[in-house]
Amino acid sequence: xxxxxxxxxxxxxxxxxxxxxxxxxxxxxxxxxxxxxxxxxxxxxxxxxxxxxxxxxxxxxxxxxxxxxxxxxxxxxx
Length: 78
Known about the structure:
The chain is mostly helical. It is built from three helices and no strands. The chain has one domain. 71% of the residues lie in helices and 0% in strands. Helix 1 (13-25) runs parallel beside helix 3 (53-77). The chain is globular, with a radius of gyration of 12 Å. The mean pLDDT is 91. This is LYR motif-containing protein 9.
């Protein structure tokens, strides 16, 4: 399960949110999908008051790296 194309285009939080939810749709079971969708929503809420552009870019970069790791984790299991 390779990361979805377009990760390099993610620059804003809303783009990241949509990208991560699309990644969740690629996961193997509904239970796993729901777990990660919930985690994405929670993380988005926690960071919703962030206004430092550098910190936002750090969060985006880390979230994409984490999503790639999760996608690869489930790819190896199948």
